[in-house]
């Protein structure tokens, strides 16, 4: 038997698209930024977020492992994929947020 510690590992490149799907399916996209950014900043005393993510509506599969570590939801197909990360100081648009390439949904804060 293999010894180890219990835990769930889901890298951000999979976690964020997964959260976008959950909020989209619940028709609650207006709460995504509060859940993913605002509450964490408040609870952990983090600095202002200066980056935003660009997501593309493109089906892809979460890898089964990442750097040799099994990934939660490994093999699951997701509808959104992070295609770019931008610093708001060098790019026009909202201070931070989530965008799709075609702006089919646009969540800018």
What does this structure look like?
With 109 residues, this protein is of the alpha+beta class. The protein has one domain. It has 2 helices and 6 strands; from the N terminus they run H-H-E-E-E-E-E-E. The strands form 2 sheets. A 4-stranded mixed β-sheet has the order 4-1-5-6. Strand 5 and strand 6 form a beta hairpin. The chain starts with 11 loop residues before the first helix and ends with a strand. 15% of the residues are buried. The model is unreliable at 90-97 and 99-109 (pLDDT under 50).
List the helices and strands and how they pair.
Layout: H1 12-25, H2 32-44, E1 51-61, E2 65-66, E3 69-70, E4 77-87, E5 97-100, E6 106-108
Parallel strand pairs: 1-5
Antiparallel strand pairs: 1-4, 2-3, 5-6
Helix tally equals 2
Total separate domains? 1
Rounded to an integer, what's the Rg over CA atoms?
15 Å
- Give the biggest sheet: 4 strands, mixed
Average the pLDDT over all residues and give the rounded result.
77
Structural class assignment = alpha+beta
* Major β-sheet strand ordering: 4-1-5-6
Shape: globular
How far do the termini sit from each other?
48 Å
The poorly predicted ranges are 90-97, 99-109
The helical percent reads 10-25%
Overall strand count = 6
What is the strand content? 25-35%
Q: What is the H-and-E element order?
A: HHEEEEEE
